User: Fold this.
Amino acid sequence: MTIDSAYRVQTRSVRERLHGESPAGFKAGLTSAPAQARFKTNDAVAGVLFKGGAVPSTSTVSLHAMRGLFIEVEVAMRIGTPIDKPLADVAALRTHIDGVGPAIELPNLDYAQPPSLDAVDIVATNVAAAKYIVGEFASPQQRDPNATDVRLVCNDKEMLTGKGTDALGDQWRAALFLVNKMVAQGWTLERGQILLTGSLGRMVPGTTGHCVASYHAGQTQWAQLEINVTP
Assistant:
């Protein structure tokens, strides 16, 4: 299977699962060099988010139900006007985005042989999309996604720090990749849908306890999201 045929498998299976409904949004994955190396590729990948995957901050997820749980701290962008054809550049993308917000993605990499996975496997299985948390949005004129610093603390222990530019070096570049990749698969991006632009810092394996993701611009904390993990 090639990457192109893997995307065809993804699109067909996702559309069957949606039963004619629209996705909640789309997600980018493998947006850092270490993540790409782990899955034997030189490119980012993209997948689809389901409305049923959205959970509020302070929710509880179970390792029994999500055996391959990982925690990713991300930035979300919100579509303000529809996109139905490829965009030429970031300037064109900016005209379609009306909000920037905090997000935690909770992918479920529950595979039988994780060490043998590559990008083709990840794409065909919809980039392990499962659950996610999205916080309050603010205008891109008020909130620069590239100027964001993030920190994840689980059970009072710092698990990661990261910054907005961890995703392909530029949040807008990551979002442009995601938009154009999904348009190429036949999707129209609709008003209100969200874009998760990729993990900041690193992926953290899910363990039982309480995790808090905080988002800062300079010395100012502008958001905080929480998740509880049970056995």
